[in-house]
Structure to design on (687 residues):
């Protein structure tokens, strides 16, 4: 017990001295949060659109007018010819152009299907997808209202069934907003912080040969491993709390679910990440290499293969398969369930099992590897 | 096994791949003595120590350290020894006191004991006004004494010091050796490696290791007597280079070495004495201050040993 306490105390003393890393631990998450929260805003608003109204009827004007009720769109340009569409899109003045056909009002009156043409600047596919989604939502809304009105005229009073509408709106306002990114960001930042700090703290002992002095002492490997990782577990938890608080202040995040669930599942995730950090420290000999390996192993897979930013189900099968070894994948589902949906164990128990398996394997294998060098 | 023996080594060998770093090394160290393990860079000193303290497994052979077998009973070996590595493994970002607390702590000292031992160490290493200075900011001599006291906190019966004086100024080195002598007075056995041969004079017993093999062992005075059977003369001169050039051509000189303004020569005939050499130099009208017949230094012994070794091969 004295031995374990000695290591923990020493580790905290070193962390306390290392002002640079400490600042980094505080500012790095805040920085990432701001980047992802503001700069990469997936909620596309104020898209400037141009309209070519070939019909020019009361109905078509009404249709166009309703666009401005949504803050997604700003009706900026009224066009007269097809040529102009090319110009406005190419120059980037408009992101989107709508062409309303000549027979728009006639067909509408007859109750036929109406087609309108939409041309989108697809350079930024993310923006494009989002705009298209918003547009669909709007049009569904419009046509539902229209059919409800039609039914009213006939004398049957029935609320329009917004089945089609709801998932679209949900998709746009939740999936791609900063709020939705927060849980992913928590997992992403914790993964990086945990792995790097753990790996560096052990490799530093190798690099400065203090590890030799420790290994001649009667300390047991498990005491050393626990003593060296425990402080970083605490730091990771503090980091998490920090991000959540920032999320609450800056992005109106609310944690809908149970805090105990959040704490326990995060602990499981952190233990896995610590294990990964230990693994890296066992196979590298310098802080520089350990840092690089940590970045490669955490950053890229966590961004690309976890569902943090890009939805996994739209990826090739092989990539989806690889994503099963990325722990953030599981943790992300859990975090989103707890924070955004407020749902309980029932909705993420399977993910928790996978995560527990991952963490157990990680901690066992890395302990064995690390024991060899002690 | 004899009760007076603190370290017993038999046939210890370590191979790294094809390369044999330590070959069939055997020796004994008595309780309470200072045992000097001497050798040039890469001779195998650190490798031998690392096997004796239980962090490197020997390829073959074994050793008993403090009554415990280094292979079968590593944990007990670790508890009974102290070790100061070649690089003073201190935490430079911790204060002197934090270092002491940490190293005492990992040996399992309880709070009261730790406090006692830390204040002992602060006293012994002369650190009383530097307790709160970061170890990285301490000067070499203090760093070295701090590292030594870290290794002594748990009152080991044996301490292994791997080149403890490298990179430390001469005055600090003398203080350090005084500290070492004071701990042997308390019955602690000291195993020390060095390549400063003049420091070997502080040792009760010595072993020379060369290319992984022990080439000789014994007390410093016995080694001087046994290895160098001929006389050694020391000539002080303002122009040692000229003297050397001249001696090189002479058949009566067997060995020449130079130490600053002092030239050591070993003649190959018994009848040569001070008068003979002084007559010879005057004859050649070479300048010199004085000539003395001296006891050979350990440096002379080491050079002679390596020469003999080469001739045998
Ligand atoms: N882990 C290792 N793998 C391969 N070779 C090694 C290893 N450790 C030491 N050696 C080699 O063994 C030889 C003896 O090394 P050792 O460190 O014991 O020398 P030393 O006498 O302590 O020298 P120094 O005065 O430089 O400390 C050296 O040639 C060294 O390169
Ligand atoms: Mg060495």
């Amino acid at each position: 017990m004295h031995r374990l306490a000695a290591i923990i105390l020493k580790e905290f003393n070193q962390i306390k001295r290392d002002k640079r890393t400490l600042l980094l631990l505080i500012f790095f998450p805040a920085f990432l949060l701001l980047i992802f929260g503001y700069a990469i805003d997936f909620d596309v608003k104020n898209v400037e659109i141009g309209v070519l109204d070939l019909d020019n009827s009361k109905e078509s004007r009404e249709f166009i007018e309703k666009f401005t009720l949504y803050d997604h769109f700003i009706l900026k340009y009224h066009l007269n010819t097809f040529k102009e569409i090319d110009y406005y899109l190419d120059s980037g003045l408009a992101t989107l152009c709508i062409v309303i056909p000549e027979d728009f009002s006639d067909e509408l009156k007859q109750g036929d299907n109406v087609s309108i043409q939409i041309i989108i600047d697809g350079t930024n596919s993310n923006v494009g997808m989002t705009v298209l989604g918003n547009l669909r939502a709007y049009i569904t809304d419009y046509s539902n209202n229209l059919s409800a009105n039609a039914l009213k005229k006939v004398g049957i009073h029935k609320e329009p069934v917004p089945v089609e509408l709801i998932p679209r709106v949900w998709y746009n306002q939740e999936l791609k907003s900063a709020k939705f990114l927060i849980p992913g960001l928590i997992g992403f930042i914790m993964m990086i912080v945990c792995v790097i700090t753990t790996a560096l703290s052990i490799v530093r002992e190798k690099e400065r040969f203090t590890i030799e002095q420790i290994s001649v002492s009667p300390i047991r490997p498990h005491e050393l491993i626990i003593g060296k990782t425990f402080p970083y577990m605490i730091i990771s938890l503090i980091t998490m709390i920090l991000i959540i608080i920032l999320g609450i202040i800056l992005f109106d995040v609310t944690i809908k679910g149970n805090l105990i669930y959040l704490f326990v599942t995060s602990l499981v995730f952190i233990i896995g990440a610590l294990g990964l950090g230990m693994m890296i420290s066992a196979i590298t000999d310098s802080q520089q290499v350990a840092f690089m390996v940590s970045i490669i192993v955490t950053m890229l897979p966590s961004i690309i293969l976890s569902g943090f930013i890009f939805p996994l189900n739209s990826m090739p099968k092989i990539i989806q398969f690889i994503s099963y070894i990325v722990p953030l994948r599981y943790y992300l589902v859990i975090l989103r369930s707890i924070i955004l949906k407020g749902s309980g164990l029932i909705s993420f128990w399977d993910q928790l099992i996978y995560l527990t398996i991952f963490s157990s394997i990680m901690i066992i294998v890395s302990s064995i590897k690390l024991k060899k060098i002690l | 096994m004899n009760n007076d023996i603190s370290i017993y080594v038999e046939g210890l060998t370590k191979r790294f791949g094809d390369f044999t770093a330590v070959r069939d090394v055997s020796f004994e160290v008595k309780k309470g003595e200072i045992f000097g393990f001497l050798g040039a860079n890469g001779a195998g000193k650190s490798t031998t120590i690392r096997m004796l303290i239980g962090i490197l497994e020997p390829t073959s052979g074994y050793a008993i350290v403090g009554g415990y077998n280094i292979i079968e009973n590593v944990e007990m070996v670790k508890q009974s020894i102290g070790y100061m590595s070649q690089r003073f493994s201190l935490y430079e970002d911790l204060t002197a006191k934090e270092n002491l607390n940490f190293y005492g702590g990992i040996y399992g000292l309880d709070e009261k004991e730790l406090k006692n031992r830390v204040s002992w160490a602060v006293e012994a290493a002369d650190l009383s006004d530097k307790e709160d200075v970061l170890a990285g900011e301490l000067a070499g001599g203090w760093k070295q004494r701090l590292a030594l006291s870290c290794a002594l906190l748990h009152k080991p019966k044996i301490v292994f010091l791997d080149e403890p004086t490298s990179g430390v100024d001469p005055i600090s080195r003398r203080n350090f050796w005084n500290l070492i002598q004071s701990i042997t007075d308390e019955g602690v056995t000291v195993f020390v490696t060095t390549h400063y041969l003049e420091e070997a004079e502080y040792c009760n017993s010595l072993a020379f290791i060369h290319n992984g093999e022990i080439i000789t062992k014994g007390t410093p005075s016995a080694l001087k007597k046994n290895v160098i059977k001929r006389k050694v003369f020391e000539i002080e001169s303002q122009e040692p280079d000229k003297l050397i050039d001249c001696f090189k051509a002479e058949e009566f000189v067997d060995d020449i070495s130079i130490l600053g303004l002092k030239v050591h020569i070993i003649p190959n005939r018994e009848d040569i004495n001070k008068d003979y050499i002084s007559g010879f130099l005057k004859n050649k009208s070479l300048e010199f201050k004085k000539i003395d017949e001296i006891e050979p230094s350990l440096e002379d012994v080491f050079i002679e040993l390596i020469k003999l070794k080469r001739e045998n091969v």
In short: The first strand of chain B starts at residue 5 and ends at 16. The CA atoms of residues 240 and 259 of chain B lie 9 Å apart.
